[in-house]
Specification:
Radius of gyration of chain A: 16 Å
Helix content of chain A: 55-70%
Largest sheet of chain A: none
Structural class of chain A: mainly alpha
Radius of gyration of chain B: 23 Å
CATH topology of chain B: Sodium/glucose cotransporter
Low-confidence stretches of chain A: none
Mean pLDDT of chain A: 89
Low-confidence stretches of chain B: 1-5
Mean pLDDT of chain B: 87
CATH class of chain B: Mainly Alpha
CATH architecture of chain B: Up-down Bundle
Number of domains of chain B: 1
Shape of chain B: globular
Largest sheet of chain B: none
Number of strands of chain B: 0
Number of domains of chain A: 1
Oligomer: heterodimer
Number of helices of chain B: 22
Distance between the termini of chain B: 39 Å
């Protein structure tokens, strides 16, 4: 939808995914550096690191492409 | 409600931060959109300016509420891939039918609701009957969803039930009251993305652990060699051959032709998202976009249930049990987990800090999107089809917006009351779902005849709808008081409750259609001029012939239908 001055929903989604990606990537790196005493099944995949990276990439894409002031 | 004394998961600080961010985001969107919600068209129909993608994702997200994620993952653990029928034949044909056949009439008639269409087509009595039934059912369902979410958070995280009910309902009430349907739709798209990103990882890591699809199937067959959990159609020859106790007639005609058609084409909760589209082509594309994603939802809902069968169970032994068995065990001091907990159990198996928070956020988002869908649809039907039609016909637009806001709050409060009732009456959830199902089945017959048969009259529409709904209630009561009656309703004494629901819906729709036809033939029809824009043959539907093939909804309907057929063959 295009109303003058109105932010796109995809911008909100981008910002939230970016924040989530940073938090999840950070937690994943922390677990990689200091593994927990009782690791999860397939913890060696380090899912937090690559899933956090994916969220950051998606978040950056949407928050830049639909940033305020850009005509979509 | 009995709860296990211990909970499944423990959240870290990162997980809590992710959940809190989610609540701040949905509330922030509500406050932001309040400035863009001035008129009734804005509040109740989101200004009718949604793109096909936003309308389509919101159309699907509104349905992802209830016990959708956890309940169907649990059903997949219990029944195997048969549960996927509710995403395939129980959705895709109906969505395609809605897009191609029914949307033109909803959209061209400029109705604001499904009861509003009935008013235009059949007159005030049919509108009143459907509006009152829909309003009651919607608020009741919203409360039950809220209760279900609170129970999930209690079992999974150990959170207090009352805390969960109040926090989630106040959040939904705030953002829907502030921004109306516009806010509900925006948040539904956000929730849709979070649901996928939160749940997808379980299936990906689960498949890696199981050794891919073939590895998973081999493990399930090794665990349960006498049962078939991995074929969708080949076990539907008779009621006894599959764990669901249903046959192909119930699935194809009860689920596919009646319940699914009724839900996806006449339940205003989902139809409201589509008629908010910016033009007819976007409105036709929206259900097709929803259908494409709906076909894929089993990957995040059904697959975790199947992975549970493969990875949690041991030969001949289920790790998870039914609700009654868990309650019995609890009375003897033993804690057993139920089928419905398979999704959080798989989440705890694979997801560490951060990912756990994202997964829990996905569950909360699912529940809240469904609840917001119910509340925003209720506000529209109450304000336009009950309040304006019956109590105050000529108020200002601002007055109706104000009424919409107040009735959003009122609807949430009634929902909270329903949730409290559910706390003390455990089986109410089953009853409400039955009530809901037998309301929409006859409604489908009424709306379909109204759109496709010029001869259907006002009296025919009203009496058909009343007869269909009454007969469904009658059949339900008959089986409740005389359990053996199930052999007449579902055509087999071996039929289980799911089969009974399907056949009851089928009979009630047939009764509705029969009564509508008979009464219509005995009463005076409307003139063609009165039916313009409402009925096939009296409505000029804009041609799409000038568009390139790939921009035409009919082309994408063909693509979606072909993909649906291929999936059925793959999982036959």
């Amino acid at each position: 939808m295009h109303r003058p001055g109105m932010l796109s929903i995809w911008f909100f989604i981008g910002v939230l995914l970016l924040a989530y990606g940073i938090l999840i990537l950070g937690a994943g790196i922390y677990e990689y550096i200091s593994p927990p005493e009782h690791p999860l099944v397939l913890a060696e995949l380090h899912a937090g690191i690559w899933w956090g990276g994916l969220l950051i990439a998606m978040g950056l894409f949407y928050s830049v492409k639909f940033r305020p002031g850009r005509n979509n | 409600m009995q709860a296990a004394p211990s909970h499944l998961l423990t959240l870290s600080g990162v997980d809590l931060a992710i959940i809190i961010l989610y609540f701040l985001a949905v509330l922030g969107i509500g406050f932001y959109l309040k400035n863009y919600t001035k008129t009734g068209e804005d509040f109740f129909l989101a200004g009718r300016e949604m793109t096909a993608w936003v309308a389509g994702l919101s159309f699907l997200a509104a349905n992802l509420g209830s016990l959708e994620l956890m309940g169907w993952a649990g059903n997949a653990y219990q029944y195997g891939i048969l549960a996927a029928h509710w995403y395939w034949i129980g959705a895709i044909p109906a969505m395609v039918f809605l897009a191609i056949v029914m949307i033109p009439f909803y959209y061209i008639s400029k109705t604001h609701s499904v009861p509003g269409y009935l008013k235009l087509r059949y007159g005030e009595p049919a509108r009143a009957l459907s509006a009152i039934s829909f309003g009651l059912m919607t608020v009741l369902m919203s409360g039950i969803n809220m209760y279900a979410m609170a129970v999930v958070l209690k079992v999974v995280l150990g959170w207090d039930i009352y805390f969960s009910i109040w926090v989630s309902s106040i959040t939904v009430a705030l953002y829907v009251t502030l921004g109306g349907l516009l806010s509900a739709i925006f948040n539904e798209v956000l929730q849709f993305v979070l649901i996928w990103l939160g749940a997808l990882l379980i299936s990906i890591i689960g498949l890696i652990e199981a050794g891919g699809w073939n590895g998973m199937v081999a493990r399930i067959h090794a665990n349960f060699p006498a049962q078939n959990f991995t074929h969708a159609w080949s076990t539907l020859g008779s009621f006894q051959d599959n764990p669901m106790g249903i046959n192909w007639v119930g699935i194809v005609f009860g689920l596919g032709a009646v319940i699914s058609m009724g839900y996806w084409t006449t339940d205003f909760l989902v139809v409201q998202r589509v008629i908010a589209a910016k033009d007819l082509r976007a409105a036709k594309l929206a259900p097709l976009i929803g259908a494409a994603f709906k076909m894929c939802v089993p990957f995040i809902v059904i697959l975790p249930g199947l992975l549970g069968l493969a990875m949690l169970d041991t030969p001949g032994h289920h790790f998870l049990v039914g609700g009654e068995a868990a309650a019995d065990a609890l009375s003897h001091g033993q804690v057993l987990h139920t089928y419905d907990e398979v999704l959080p159990i798989m989440l705890a198996r694979y997801c560490g800090p951060g990912l756990m928070g994202l997964g829990i956020t996905a569950l909360i988002a699912g529940f809240m999107s469904g609840m917001a869908g119910n509340v925003s649809a209720f506000a529209t039907v109450w304000t336009y089809d009950i309040y304006r039609a019956m109590f105050r016909k000529n108020a200002t637009d601002a007055h109706y917006v104000s009424m919409g806001r107040w009735c959003t709050i009122g609807g949430v409060l009634v929902s909270i009351g329903t949730a409290y009732l559910a706390l003390h009456a455990h089986s109410i959830m089953d009853y409400v779902q039955e009530l809901f199902s037998f309301f929409i089945a006859p409604l489908f017959g009424t709306v379909l005849l109204g759109m496709l048969w010029k001869r259907a009259t006002s009296a025919g529409g009203f009496w058909g709808l009343l007869a269909g709904t009454s007969s469904a209630i009658g059949m339900w009561a008959w089986v409740k008081t005389t359990p053996l009656a199930v052999q007449y309703i579902a055509l087999s004494p071996a039929a289980k409750p799911m089969a009974e629901n399907m056949f009851r819906a089928l009979w009630s729709a047939l009764i509705c259609v029969t009564v509508t036809v008979v009464v219509s033939l005995a009463t005076r029809p409307k003139t063609e001029a009165e039916l313009a824009g409402l009925v096939y043959g009296c409505t000029e539907i804009p041609s799409e012939g000038h568009l390139p093939l790939w921009q035409r909804p009919i082309f994408w309907a063909g693509v979606v239908s072909a993909a649906f057929v291929v999936i059925q063959i793959i999982f036959w």
